[in-house]
Design a protein that fits this description.
8-stranded mixed sheet; about 45% strand; globular; alpha+beta; 20-stranded mixed sheet; Jelly Rolls; Immunoglobulin-like
């Protein structure tokens, strides 16, 4: 039994040894298989990652970028007016965009009216020149009249040699005469700073600064108004400008003769589509009634010159309802009937060639009403330049809670050279231009110039569908 036990023990040891070797061999093969599978997975994952990166790079939208900034707009040019910009000189024409470092030169007897980015207007006298740069206007020679509106942004600096002039809500003459800066203020106040000191110049006073001397300020009994009466008028006006709707609230229950109240603009979104000089602009506004009583809204909208209305809609109970064209008397009758039955009607009426008005009832106390108006414009493409202008900042200043603007140039925008306001951004590689501001008081027009790379045929017919 002992020998059998020994024999059995020896046999068991051999078998265990054999099993152990087989198990170790199997483990090595399993590990090799696992390593192979892992290697394949890693290679596959790497290929997928590389592919994903390539797809992302190819399909991702380029980040927003700034376009060449438009510093001003030449609104009026009479006589010999020349523009030097981009290394070239050209004859000035009304509506021309002026880029950074542009120089405006007026010949003898000529006049030029320039609208600046802060909303101020500059009227150049003959035999003058100014250079436009970011945040500064430099007078090389001559004289100009400046109408500076109120602003919530940093005012432009007007440089006359080594002298700087800044003004807000003012009207003043800026002149360079015999190497001296001469500043006359007709309205408001201007701050004049030279090497010899800083002074405040009030209405009816004139400051003279020469070299390093201290500025001299003295009352001026008579000023030769060469502007043709422009100095008699304040910048802006009491009527709304083109491109922005305004609602005046009328309280039917108020005492006779009570003044209307202008409703606040809580939100304004401007969306434009531009194709080959043809554009449709949608102005989407949300008005807020801050009063304690419901009112009937009288909506006024002034179109840019040459534009035509293509659509009008008012939001009612959360739904944007499109308007329909009706004969004027019939529309007025339907409005009165609908209002009397307690519903929420709206009617858009043509006033003159550029003005429309609408009656919107009701605008609840502490509530909002949304109004959308669309219009179409056609501007010729001159020398491969497509121009789009959305008028802002004309008339009485209006504060907008949230403002946004987008211009869709389509696929053609990817190959265009774009110039626009410094506040705007170029997105989607040139397909779209956007601008966003909060607590915004517009002071100057939105301007866009897009230059196409290819030559246009002498005649082209475009078909456009509104909406």
């Amino acid at each position: 039994m002992a020998s059998q036990g020994v024999s059995l023990s020896s046999a068991s040891g051999a078998e265990l040894c054999t099993l152990r070797i087989r198990k170790e061999s199997g483990s090595e093969e399993t590990m090799k298989n696992k390593r192979g599978v892992l290697r394949v997975l890693l290679i596959t994952l790497s290929v997928c990652l590389v592919g994903a990166v390539v797809v992302y790079v190819l399909k991702r939208e380029p980040p927003p970028s700034a376009a060449a900034p438009i510093q001003a707009r030449l609104e009026l040019a009479t006589g010999d007016v020349k523009i030097e910009q981009g290394g070239a000189e050209e004859r000035g024409s009304s509506g021309m965009a002026l880029l950074s470092q542009a120089k405006v030169v007026t010949g003898k007897g000529a006049r030029a009216l320039v609208r600046l980015p802060d909303g101020s207007s500059m009227f150049l006298r003959g035999d003058s020149d100014v250079t436009l740069s970011e945040g500064q206007i430099s007078l090389g020679k001559g004289e100009y009249w400046l109408n500076a509106p109120p602003t919530d942004r940093k005012a432009l600096v007007h440089a006359v040699g080594d002298v700087s002039v800044s003004a807000v809500d003012s009207g003043l003459s800026v002149k360079l005469k015999d190497s001296a800066a001469v500043i006359y203020v007709a309205r408001g106040m201007a701050i004049v700073t030279g090497k010899g000191g800083r002074v405040e110049v009030n209405a009816g006073e004139q400051a003279t600064v020469k070299g390093a001397d201290a500025p001299r300020v003295a009352p001026l009994a008579f000023w030769d108004d060469w502007t043709g009466g422009m100095a008699d008028f304040a910048a802006g006006g009491s009527i709304p400008g083109a491109g922005t709707g305004t609602i005046y609230g009328v309280d039917d229950g108020a005492a006779p003769g009570s003044a209307t109240r202008k409703l606040e603009i809580a939100k304004q979104a401007v969306r434009a589509v531009v194709r080959n000089g043809l554009s449709e602009t949608e102005v989407d506004q949300t008005f807020f009634n801050p009063g304690s009583r419901d009112v009937e809204g009288w909506y006024w909208f002034t179109l840019p010159n040459g534009a035509s209305v293509t659509g009008f809609a008012v939001e009612t109970d959360g739904v944007l309802v499109e308007g329909e064209f009706q004969e004027k008397k019939e529309a007025a009758k339907n409005y009165g009937t609908t209002k009397a039955t307690g519903h929420a009607p709206a009617i858009l009426e043509w006033v003159d060639q550029s003005t429309y008005r609408a009656r919107i009832f009701p605008v609840r106390s502490g509530k909002t009403r949304r109004v959308v108006l669309r219009y179409i414009e056609l501007k010729p493409v001159v020398e491969n330049v497509i121009e789009y202008v959305y008028p802002m900042g004309r008339g009485e200043p209006v504060r907008i809670g949230e403002f946004s603007l987008s211009v869709d140039l389509g696929k053609a925008g990817e190959s265009m050279k774009i110039a626009t306001l410094a506040d705007a951004r170029v997105e989607q590689g040139g397909r779209k231009i956007t601008m966003r501001r909060s607590g915004f008081t517009p002071r100057a027009d939105f301007q866009l110039e897009a230059t196409t790379a290819d030559e246009r045929p002498p005649l082209r017919v475009s078909r456009f569908k509104a909406g």
